[in-house]
Amino acid sequence: MLRWLCRQDNKGVDLGIWKNIPPSILSCPLDVHSGNVARKLGLLTRKQNDGKALAELDSKLRELDPIDPVKYDFALFGLGVFEGF
After folding, report:
1. Do 22 and 70 touch, CB atoms closer than 8 A?
2. Do 52 and 46 meet the contact criterion of CB atoms below 8 Å apart?
3. How far is C-alpha 11 from the geometric centre of its chain's CA atoms?
4. Computed from CA positions of residues 64, 68, 74, 80, in that sequence, does the dihedral angle turn out positive or negative?
5. Phi, psi of 45 (to 5 degrees)
6. Is 36:27 a contact under the CB 8 Å cutoff?
7. Which of 38, 46, 65, 81 is most deeply packed, by most CB within 10 A?
8. Which domain of life is it from (predicted)?
9. Each residue of 36-66: b (16+ CB within 10 Å) or e?
10. CB 38 within 8 A of CB 44
11. Among 79, 78, 17, which Cα is nearest to 2's?
């Protein structure tokens, strides 16, 4: 939920109404879909979807974009749900 409230985009997905929380401190939601896709892409090695896996995924996504690491959430989730990746 924080992603949609704190991030601002031009596509209408993220509302950006909470300006005092920077996207750089947010974590990507880790569910079965985003976890499976992250593993297939080599972003996550831990098998369980738990706090340690979230820390690992956060670290990898921050390497890709330290300012807005949660921008990858929709892609990870969407590939898992809609594309069966």
Report:
1. no
2. yes
3. 17
4. positive
5. -105, -25
6. no
7. 38
8. Bacteria
9. bbbbeeebbebeebeeebbebbbebbbeeee
10. yes
11. 17
